[in-house]
Amino acid sequence: MTEPAIPFVRLEGVTKLHGQLTAVDNLSLTLARGEFFALLGPSGCGKTSLLRLIAGFEAPDSGRIFIDGADMTETPAHKRPVNMMFQTYALFPHMNVARNIGFGLVQEGMPKPEIKRRVAEMLRLVQLEGLGERRPDQLSGGQKQRVALARALAKRPKLLLLDEPLAALDRRLREETQFELLHLQKSFGVTFLVVTHDQREAMVMASRIAVMRTGRIEQIGAPAEIYEKPNSTYVARFIGEINIFEGKVAAARDNFLSVSTAAGVIEVASDVAHALGHAVVVAVRPERILVTLSDLTEASPSPVNALAGEIEEKAYLGEATLYRIRLACGLVLRAAAQNAEPGARAFEPGDKVAAGFAPEAAIVLSS
Ligand SMILES: Nc1ncnc2c1ncn2[C@@H]1O[C@H](COP(=O)(O)OP(=O)(O)OP(=O)(O)O)[C@@H](O)[C@H]1O
Ligand SMILES: [Mg+2]
């Protein structure tokens, strides 16, 4: 899953400097043809810079960029089989929506009736039928974004770079559009490279995700791989919520470690050997924590790791209830209980509880 057999896009040691600042740092990456790839990372980590290099709006200071087997490092943007949808939309203010969407097709010399047909198809796709005559300043933010998306797709490029394509949409439209984008990408066979801030969005759409950190890629993998086997605390924290315990290896046997932490000794499953005394981080997702009342009298098998604490806050989210649990050591844990069964036990602030999790539910990371 890590490297496609026949790369469609290949970046080799690409670096981009802005004065003193290294926006993209010796980055190598391959995308397979027809892949839906997502780039995730905090603001300023170099996502837009990377897209601009692939599109050809900027030249790298070093490294090479191959697309569809050809070295495109020196090729100008308009000669690359690539289109980009910008974070800021960059619509032409004096043109109506239909002309914005058809702009690239006119440039290409496509016959008028075909342009009309293609524009109508795109308007339907982004649910803007009937708005073709409007100017961009007569549209809402979300509508502008959809025009930009339609314009980027109209030319059916081999590679489409999308910079935060859905950021301005409301939640419902955003989720709908995620599935539409997926469908579109599959039916056109276009390779998509999408930048997003939203890890859920990346997980819904992408077959592979790269998590970036200061110009480099920290980890690449399928969504489940990144979520369940993050290779660093940075990735673990960036993808979803996670509880972190810092500690030292106190005992190791077979595939288990005992890690001594401020919250007590935590037993974790680990197939990686760690030396005694080695500093490690134990990470546990909130949904893997089972909350029980600590004065429970009936005999129930207590999990290996059961940390005593008190419910500090509770948030009912419909499908799940989130708890903040303050442990005796002062650490605050987050636990998420699914509300799948009506009438399931809910805890209230002040309840004395045990936060339990299995050794297999914890991830061991080097600190
Ligand atoms: N033209 C430029 N001149 C100088 N610095 C720049 C330029 N473009 C980007 N940078 C810097 O390069 C770094 C990476 O910027 P980039 O726009 O790629 O980040 P990003 O990951 O897209 O962030 P965001 O999520 O906020 O859009 C930032 O520190 C930014 O300030
Ligand atoms: Mg950006």
TrEMBL record:
Residues 9-239 form the ABC transporter domain. It is an enzyme of class 7 (translocase). GO terms for molecular function: ATP binding. It comes from the Bacteria. It catalyses: ATP + H2O + polyamine-[polyamine-binding protein]Side 1 = ADP + phosphate + polyamineSide 2 + [polyamine-binding protein]Side 1. Its EC number is 7.6.2.11. Belongs to the ABC transporter superfamily. Spermidine/putrescine importer (TC 3.A.1.11.1) family. The complex is composed of two ATP-binding proteins (PotA), two transmembrane proteins (PotB and PotC) and a solute-binding protein (PotD). Part of the ABC transporter complex PotABCD involved in spermidine/putrescine import. Responsible for energy coupling to the transport system. PANTHER family: PUTRESCINE TRANSPORT ATP-BINDING PROTEIN POTG (PTHR42781:SF5), SPERMIDINE/PUTRESCINE IMPORT ATP-BINDING PROTEIN POTA (PTHR42781). This is Spermidine/putrescine import ATP-binding protein PotA. It comes from Methylocapsa polymorpha. The lineage of its organism: Bacteria, Pseudomonadati, Pseudomonadota, Alphaproteobacteria, Hyphomicrobiales. The gene is potA.
